[in-house]
Write a structure and sequence with these properties.
By secondary structure, the chain is α/β, with parallel strands linked by helices. It folds into three domains: 143 residues, no CATH class; 101 residues, Rossmann fold, CATH 3.40.50; 159 residues, Rossmann fold (3-Layer(aba) Sandwich). 33% of the residues lie in helices and 11% in strands. It has a four-stranded parallel beta sheet with strand order 4-3-5-6. It has a four-stranded mixed beta sheet with strand order 7-8-9-10. It has a two-stranded antiparallel ribbon with strand order 1-2. Strand 7, helix 9 and strand 8 form a beta-alpha-beta unit. Helix 7 packs antiparallel against helix 8 and helix 12 runs antiparallel to helix 13. About 5% of the residues have low confidence. Bound molecules: calcium ion (CA) (2 copies). One calcium ion binds next to helix 2.
Length: 430
């Protein structure tokens, strides 16, 4: 939809303005009035007129000012003020925002993200009581990081129910709600609605069934942007999860934590010459700069070699790699399997080094600049380790491991010893 594209464009514009130079500390609102958070991303829910991390009185004031035609207050200036997405700002929008502030059951309009990153607006019967999920790996990670795991009552996943038992002990012993990750068994969904009060489905890709079946059952469908490596993208997904269940505390803390780590990396690498890198997949192909894997490089302040700039699909390994002129580092973000978890202290890492070994005759590898980083670590931790791979003089592995430990302690129940996990492999360790 055009209007959605315009709204998202406006969000991106605001984010860019903020990045351009102003450090903004939004304060005085959120779940805890005494806390302010260092968060530059926006809650992707219409009615969030000021595009900060929550819906509160500030948004209602803006909507009222637009209704009152106060100078400077227009829908064009505040595209998210149109809470019901009908193209106009009226008392109906104010009522929706007031409903959220007063914690009344309210139909809200959420910006969902499709698998191809396009967006659309859909309604959600807010707040959700409980949800089920079509289980791609990025979703359980999203639930865990944002602190809403207790609200997730089941997943559709290909059997056997292969979920990393070290990372997600919560899911052990469950059976799948459908034959695969895109298909729910409607009767099983009906049962879990009754037993657990499920009123939402959180998914990524398209569902095989007609979604209207679920909507007619009173179930809202939510598609968060769950694999974006940017602070703004990650934050948007985190904030949406916390908002959906009206349980925002951890989503606010984890968003702010990522922003702090990004700020620290920016500070440590200020004035340092940009290091260029490529990321590879399990076949050894190089990810295009537009993929979320490759974008981890730019979030960690690295760049790409000129040879791959502008490429929109993956680039196959070939002799051309030996003549690349301006590539300094090669990184494999490698997914683990449930039988050999990256989060086990006994992880057999040699199983995950075949792709990077294809590069053993490249200058990057010969210079000791080849790395394997566990894909399965939370995005903020992944970015910290990526910064180590790019700028080891400025960003040390000790610092990243300290940050990882702090993340596990605060957001992962503290059961992991970061110093004993081998989630970051240097060339010597490969
Ligand atoms: Ca707001
Ligand atoms: Ca409206």
């Amino acid at each position: 939809m055009n209007s959605v594209a315009v709204k998202m464009g406006a969000i991106i514009a605001v984010v860019i303005i903020v990045i351009a130079g102003v450090a903004v500390y939004f304060g005085g609102s959120g779940s805890d009035d005494s806390t302010s958070y260092n968060i530059k991303g926006a809650l992707p829910v219409l009615g969030n007129a000021d595009q900060d991390y929550d819906i509160d009185q500030d948004d209602l004031d803006i909507i009222q000012n637009i209704i009152d035609k106060k100078e400077g207050y227009t829908l064009a200036n505040y595209p998210m003020a149109d809470a019901n997405n009908d193209g106009d700002v009226t008392s109906v929008d104010a009522d929706i925002v007031r409903g959220v502030i007063d914690k009344q059951k309210t139909t809200v309009y959420v910006i969902n993200t499709n698998f191809d990153s396009s967006t659309y607006v859909d309604t959600v019967n807010w707040p959700l009581k409980a949800a089920i999920s079509a289980g791609v790996s990025t979703l359980p990670m999203l639930f865990k990081c944002s602190g809403v795991m207790d609200y997730i009552k089941g997943m559709a996943l290909s059997e056997p129910y292969n979920v990393d038992s070290y990372l997600y002990p919560e899911f052990q012993g469950w059976s799948s709600l459908g034959p695969n990750m895109r298909e729910f068994d409607v009767e099983k969904v009906r049962d879990i609605m009754k037993s657990d009060g499920v009123d939402g489905i959180i998914c990524v890709a398209g569902l095989k069934e007609n979604e209207s079946i679920f909507k007619n059952m009173g179930i809202s469908i939510i598609r968060p942007e769950c694999s974006a490596p940017t602070v703004e993208g990650y934050t948007s997904a985190m904030l949406l999860m916390g908002f959906l269940f009206d349980a925002p505390t951890q989503s606010l803390k984890v968003s702010s934590w990522f922003q702090d780590v990004k700020d620290a990396i920016d500070e440590k690498t200020k004035g340092v010459k940009t290091v260029n890198a490529v990321t590879i997949g399990s076949s050894g192909s190089i990810w295009s700069p537009s993929s979320n894997y490759a974008k981890c490089i730019t979030v960690a302040n690295g760049g790409f070699p000129s040879e791959i700039m502008g490429q929109t699909s993956n680039i196959k390994f070939g002799d051309w790699i030996y003549t690349m002129k301006d590539c300094d580092v090669v990184i494999d973000f490698h997914s683990g399997s449930s039988s050999n978890s990256w989060f086990s202290e006994d992880c057999n890492v040699s199983e995950y080094t075949a792709a990077i070994k294809l590069y053993k005759d490249t200058t990057m590898y010969q210079n000791g600049k080849a790395y394997v980083i566990a894909f399965d670590v939370p995005m903020p931790v992944k970015i910290a380790y990526t910064a180590v791979a790019l700028y080891p003089e400025q960003v040390t592995e000790e610092w990243a491991t300290e940050m990882a430990q702090d993340f596990y302690d605060q957001f992962f129940g503290g059961k992991f010893d970061a110093s004993k996990l081998n989630v970051f492999l240097t060339t010597e360790e490969i």
